[in-house]
Amino acid sequence: MRHEYSLQLWDITKSFDSVSVVRDLNLSLMPGKITCLLGPSGCGKSTTLRIAAGLEKQDKGKVFIDGKLISSATSAHMPPENRSVGFMFQDFALFPHLTVKGNIEFGLTSKQSLVAKTQASKALLRKINLEGYQDKYPHMLSGGEQQRVALARAIAAAPKVMLMDEPFSGLDKRLRDEIREQSLQLMKEEGTAVLLVTHEPEEAMRMADNIALMRKGRIVQQGAPYNIYNKPIDSKSAAFFSDINMLTSRVKNGRTETPFGPFITPGFSEGSEVEIIIRPQHLKIDFDRNGKGPNPTVQDGVPARGVVCSSRFLGKESIIELRMETDGSRLRTSIPGVFLPELGTPLWLSMRRDRCFVFLKNHEP
Ligand code: ADP
Ligand code: MG
Question: Are 250 and 215 members of one domain?
Fold first, then answer.
């Protein structure tokens, strides 16, 4: 029977030359679920994945696969080939001297008979839509086809855990979307737990059941994409997923003043500096109000007027930057691409208060 978790990392810590790269990291993966380890370059994602794989040993902490302890500071360190994990990396090249069939069979266990291997590799080729390709060599395949063969090789041994380090980043966008969708769907169906490392928030939002957001060696926040996008723990976490606007202000009598009227900010001590964060799509140009002046509402507060100082058409949307009259601050709004106001146009903006995040300034978790 399968354990509740396919892979567990417990309190993993790792340093290189006394520089700590992964710190007190905890992560659990469930069968058939995709977990994205997301964070900027250099934050320790690949190191974490290599520790899970057994390619690197942690200084502290434990690794469990399917409930069994396979590596700790005091126990033996199980080598990668015995862990029931598959790997896929961006530059995980196929063996150039082996055919497609030869490459896939390399992933199969040596205990299987020749006939069983041939059948298994045929079934895998069908799954990745490359039927009839068994005798071709890697140089005869396109980049996308090679990546699919690499995937077949990685899943041939039916690993409990698949570790993928930016495996799709070498492919161009259309191909990437297709191959990514197909590969991850296949692994979900097989009940494989997937750890997908990426630095692209769009990829994580699109593919993950669970996102673990990493910063400087730590996981700072974990959750479903919807929750992590809508409930960031701080302004950096909010900014990782989209452009943001930030209004800073001081708490006075339990409120903070903004160009959009006062915000009630309970829970923040008097005099503390707070950041009010709003994503551009939640600032709205208030066309009805043009020429009429402010008219506060409960949801959007007081509208504020600004002058267009930059206006960019991106097709699906336009990004408009306004210099606000109240304090000269610049705020960005994104609106459907049909509208592109000229520089210098005065416009009213209102703010979706229910979409604002309020944090103590310079808060670090
Ligand atoms: P990411 O995958 O998030 O970009 P990495 O885990 O590759 O980050 O690297 C995290 C940090 O650890 C980087 O500063 C990197 O230079 C350092 N690092 C990674 N591997 C080694 C190593 N074998 N020796 C020394 N430093 C390393
Ligand atoms: Mg990396």
Answer: no
